[in-house]
Hints:
Blueprint: H1 14-25, H2 31-38, H3 42-54, H4 66-69, E1 73-81, H5 87-95, E2 100-105, E3 112-118, H6 121-132, E4 137-145
Amino acid sequence: MGKTKSADKTPLDDLDFSILTYLQQDGRISFTVIAEKLHVSIGTIRTRFNRLIEEGTINIVGRVDPEKVGFHSYAHIAVYVRPATLKDAVAQQIAVMPEVSFLAMTSGAYDLEVNVMCRDNDHLLEFVNELSKLEGVYQTKTTLYFKVYKYAQPDLGLLKN
């Protein structure tokens, strides 16, 4: 019987974290530049990069500024699910909605936390109305973000002792 994908992951070392840090700063940085900065061969960087991609540790995407491309309504939606046994089913349906940028099950007052990016407030209203129609969605509370001051990936330096 084959190993699961998570069992196949190689533990990350300092070189992996250094490569990831450079890529977070500039996803288009060349292997040559990274190799020079880290004093290793280009082949080493290429091999490590390919492993990080294959194991799902990193994926390279073009991150857009939502405001600059036309998303003018960004919101946090607290979702209350009843009965509680439907949380996973509701989350799976929400996860495929294209407006959703973040989705998590929470502890506390509500069951699911959803962040969405919509074209405008009319689009947001349509989204909330569709969300409310899902079986198990008991209630939603929407908080509109007026201005986003920071939207970033985690700082990998926080993992160092």
